[in-house]
Design brief:
Blueprint lengths: L12 E15 L4 E14 L2 E8 L3 H14 L7 H11 L8 H21 L3 H5 L6 E7 L6 H13 L4 E5 L4 H15 L3 E5 L6 H12 L3 E5 L7 H10 L5 E4 L6 H9 L5 E4 L6 H15 L3 E3 L3 H10 L3 E7 H10 E2 L8 E2 L11 E2 L1 H4 L5
Parallel strand pairs: 4-5, 4-11, 5-6, 6-7, 7-8, 8-9, 9-10, 10-11
Antiparallel strand pairs: 1-2, 2-3, 4-13, 12-14
Helix pairs in contact: 1-2, 1-3, 2-3, 3-10, 5-6, 6-7, 7-8, 9-10
């Protein structure tokens, strides 16, 4: 596509995958893993380079290089919506969900970062800030952790000034209840969240919700599969007062979020910009929440979501996820650190405010 005389044409768009081992074996209610792969995209225009990323399979990098990069190269770097639309249209026969959505998300993030750098403003300033900072909750507490590991991690977050923490459950119902009680005794008055990753059936989820209420659990994420909208609605209707039901992290498109809200399935919708179409898709999810009067929470990838959550008036908090904290610190300079339990985007730095550490990343090349 040829650019107009006033346009700033997008130049080279590149992508590469990096696989980083976990610092200990990790599992949740339905999955086990020992490494995480991040696909990093760079997009250039007028001497500036934007960076974006997604946590996905390494195959997404090939999809970006072979299919998406040629679509956006030459387009106006200021017209991100045009690039987003053509990418979404072009993957119709591949399948817009899953791998293609994560690939589009990484490119879209790089284009937003590039546009902000071209205009020499932070991403939150470019989108428009609703707040200066966004509260975070520490997220980890894997089912594979020993009790001392669980205590050390959750207690450490609270001691650092983070006021809410989340732990994984779903492997063993009795063990889950004991570990939740241990977490409560560890974190004192801080808020306690649990995430079953869809491991329970409806009956067990209801029983566990009642049990967790004794330890003042205020957030029950994916008590049943996020595909079971009727089940989520059942749990939401019958959960103890003060316990929010949350889901949405597997949404790849606005229609997914709309169906979840139409079903009355959640108290808080989750969205992940590394899956749902980058900042463009995340802001669509925020608009859906705004229209429904429902709060939004971001899923993982804190360096990307800090700016977006500060721009979304309906955002309640951001997931400060253990794996991604480690990876983003290893691979990027300028990563934000929580202060007083919140992330505050640095408006003095353009775009996302992060710089990719190519040399440090090379050892993890997939």
């Amino acid at each position: 596509m040829s650019a107009s005389p006033a346009a700033i044409p997008i130049g080279r768009v590149s992508a590469a995958a990096y696989t980083i081992p976990t610092d200990a074996p990790e599992s949740d209610g339905t999955l086990e893993w020992s490494s995480t792969t991040i696909v990093v995209v760079h997009a250039s225009a007028a001497g500036r380079v934007g960076v974006g990323y997604s946590y996905t399979h390494a195959a997404a990098a090939h999809l970006i290089i072979d299919t998406l990069a040629p679509l956006v190269t030459g387009r106006d770097a200021l017209d991100i919506e045009s690039a987003y639309v053509v990418m979404m249209q072009h993957v119709r026969n591949i399948g817009r969900q899953g791998l293609a959505a994560t690939a589009i998300s990484a490119v879209d993030a790089a284009l937003w970062d590039l546009k902000a750098r071209l205009l020499d403003v932070s991403l939150v300033a470019l989108v428009g800030a609703a707040r200066d900072a966004i509260p975070v909750y520490g997220s980890g507490g894997f089912t594979s952790y020993t009790e001392p590991q669980l205590v050390d991690q959750l207690g450490g977050w609270v001691a650092s000034g983070i006021h809410a923490v989340k732990m994984k459950i779903g492997r063993d119902a009795a063990a889950d209840r004991a570990r939740v009680h241990l977490a409560r005794t560890t974190i004192g008055d801080a808020q306690l969240f649990v995430d079953a990753n869809g491991a329970y059936d409806r009956t067990l989820a209801l029983a566990q919700a009642d049990a967790f209420a004794h330890d003042a659990v205020v957030w029950f994420e994916e008590p049943v599969s996020s595909d079971d909208l009727d089940g989520l609605r059942l749990i939401r209707d019958r959960a103890p007062a003060g316990m929010d039901i949350a889901a949405g992290e597997y949404g790849f498109e606005p229609q997914y979020f709309q169906r979840m809200l139409d079903a009355g399935a959640v108290d808080v919708l989750q969205a992940d910009a590394t899956r749902c179409g980058g900042p463009t898709g995340f802001l669509r999810a925020a608009a859906i929440c705004d229209a429904a009067g429902l709060p939004l929470s971001s899923h993982t990838a804190p360096s990307l979501h800090a700016h977006l959550c500060c721009a979304a008036s309906c955002a309640r908090h951001l997931e400060y996820f253990h794996d991604h904290i480690r990876i983003e610190r290893q691979l990027f300079d300028g990563v934000l650190e929580p202060v007083g339990g919140a992330l505050r985007p640095d408006r003095s730095r353009p775009g996302l405010g992060i710089e990719f550490k190519q040399r440090d990343a090379e050892r993890y090349a997939a």
